[in-house]
């Protein structure tokens, strides 16, 4: 599925950060997106329903979101929608999950104080070992995709943009961020 959605809502649970077996950060939290209207006659806001979404973020986005978000914050989340069927103790239903591409505070509902985080630097390649030496382990760069990820992306018609680590569709022109190295 490749349904990209954007939702507005409130962080419903404090974000929880974990680490994958490969060492990448993963962050999970829930967002409540409510709708309603102002009833002039009653002089009150009438809520018409709330949708709950499980949001997952990876790597650098996970780290930045963990440092920035708290339960109750007004947010905007853009990412891939995944509808999953579940069963538990004789009950069943569907969950709406979003694998986030971008997360931010909803500035229509409050203010925020942005601070750019530095991109991780790539370590220089180690010299080839001589016959009696062992090669040192290369440091893990959580932004750099491993070979399996690159192979999966290539098979799906995607490529990694040189110098950014971002993913684009084959043939897609990508505008470089003028402030990326600022």
Automatic annotation (TrEMBL):
List the residue ranges of the region (Disordered). 110-153
The record's annotation in Pfam families points to:
SSB
Q: Establish whether keyword DNA-binding is in the entry.
A: yes
Q: Which SUPFAM superfamilies match?
A: Nucleic acid-binding proteins (SSF50249)
Biased composition of type Low complexity is found at: 116-139
| Keywords, alphabetical | DNA-binding
| Annotated InterPro entries | NA-bd_OB-fold, Primosome_PriB/ssb, ssDNA-bd
Superkingdom classification of source: Bacteria
The entry lists its GO molecular-function terms as: DNA binding
NCBIfam families from the entry? ssb
Its quaternary organisation is: Homotetramer.
- What name has this protein been given in UniProt? Single-stranded DNA-binding protein
């Amino acid at each position: 599925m490749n349904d990209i959605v954007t939702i507005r809502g409130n962080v419903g649970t404090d974000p929880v950060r974990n680490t994958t077996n490969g060492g990448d950060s993963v962050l999970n939290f829930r967002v409540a997106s409510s709708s309603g209207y102002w009833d002039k006659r009653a002089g009150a806001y009438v809520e018409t329903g709330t949708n709950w979404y499980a949001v997952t973020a990876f790597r650098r986005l996970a780290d930045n979101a963990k440092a920035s978000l708290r339960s109750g914050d007004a947010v905007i989340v853009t990412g891939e929608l995944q509808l999953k069927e579940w069963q538990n103790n004789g009950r069943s239903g569907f969950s709406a999950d979003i694998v986030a591409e971008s997360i931010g505070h909803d500035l229509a509902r409050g203010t925020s104080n942005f601070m750019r985080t530095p991109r991780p630097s790539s370590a220089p390649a180690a010299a080839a070992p001589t016959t009696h030496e062992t090669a040192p382990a290369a440091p893990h760069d959580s932004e750099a995709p491993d070979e399996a990820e690159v192979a999966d992306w290539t098979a799906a018609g995607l490529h990694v943009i040189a110098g950014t680590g971002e993913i684009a569709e084959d043939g897609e022109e990508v505008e470089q961020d003028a402030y990326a190295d600022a």
